[in-house]
Specification:
Largest sheet: none
Distance between the termini: 14 Å
Number of strands: 0
Radius of gyration: 17 Å
Length: 113
Amino acid sequence: MFGMVHVLNGFITGLFFESFVQAILATFSGFIFLAIRVKTKSIVLAIAIHWLWDFSVFMSATNPHAGGKIIEMMVSIVLAASPLAFGILGIAQLRNRKVVEDFLAEQPESISY
């Protein structure tokens, strides 16, 4: 769901391929955000990490010549690869059944899964 929402950026920007790539990366990032939510039982840390991520992407995009070609390439690699790493880490964390069962047990009865 988190990744699918990012596909809508294509309708805003007209850059559908870039939005599709962003949606894939957002899907993987969504796994770590979910793992953080389950582990901490709060969404605040996930929101803060998402904000820091968006801020770093914005800053690197608005000032691409600040550090030279090598630093620009390294930043691009980190920004592209880290959601994949986050997704793998999130999936690994969510495989802990005890943590997930404890989280679900604490949720209100009115929420259906």
